[in-house]
Specification:
This protein is α+β, with helices and mostly antiparallel strands and 157 residues long. It contains seven helices and five strands, in the order ααααβααββββα. Strands 2-3-1-4-5 form a five-stranded mixed sheet, with helices on one face.
C-alpha cells in the first residue's frame, strides 16, 4: 500500500519513541502517507494502523481530529487561510473573500482544473503577521495583501 521509501520514513518516526510505544509515531506516519498518496483514504489509514500495530479506529480518530489531514482528494495546492478572530480583525476575512473570488470557489471546494482547494483554518500561531495562510500544510505565508495573494496564485499556477 505504501512505498518502501515511505515505510523507511515511517521507521525513522518510530525510532524517535521507545520500542513499545511505536503508535506515538501515528501523526508523522499519517503525514508521510498523505504526502505519498495526496490524501488519506480508509485503505491508507488501515495500512498505517497495521504498520504501527494499532487499531484502525485509533488512526481514524487522529486523522479526523486534526485539520492538516486530507480525508478526501484535494487540489494540487491546498490553501488554508486562518480566519480566527485576531486574524479576521487584521484583514483575513477580506483576504479570504479575495481568494474565493480569485479562485472561483468557496471553502472546502476545489477549482475546476484541480489545482487549488481552499480551506478555512484555525489559529496558526502567527496572529501578529495576519493575514496568514498555509500552502499544503508546509509553507506559511504572512502579511497577505490582495497583491501578495494574486502573486502567490500566479506563482503556483
Amino acid at each position: 500500500m505504501l512505498s518502501a521509501e515511505s515505510l523507511k520514513k515511517i521507521d525513522r518516526e518510530i525510532a524517535k519513541y521507545p520500542a513499545d510505544q511505536k503508535q506515538s509515531a501515528v501523526m508523522g506516519a499519517l503525514i508521510i502517507a498523505q504526502d505519498e498518496k495526496g490524501w488519506l483514504s480508509n485503505d491508507t489509514m488501515d495500512a498505517v494502523a497495521k504498520y504501527l500495530d494499532m487499531p484502525a479506529v485509533a488512526v481514524y480518530e487522529v486523522a479526523t481530529f486534526y485539520s492538516m489531514y486530507n480525508l478526501q482528494p484535494t487540489g494540487k495546492y491546498k490553501i488554508t487561510i486562518c480566519t480566527c478572530l485576531p486574524c479576521g480583525l487584521q484583514g483575513a476575512l477580506a483576504a479570504a473573500d479575495h481568494l474565493r473570488e480569485k479562485l472561483g470557489v468557496d471553502f472546502n471546494e476545489t477549482t475546476a482544473d484541480g489545482k487549488f482547494t481552499l480551506k478555512e483554518g484555525e489559529c496558526m500561531g502567527a496572529c501578529a503577521m495576519a493575514p496568514v495562510l498555509l500552502v499544503n500544510n508546509k509553507k506559511m505565508h504572512d502579511y497577505m495583501t490582495n497583491e501578495k495573494l494574486d502573486q502567490l496564485i500566479k506563482e503556483l499556477k
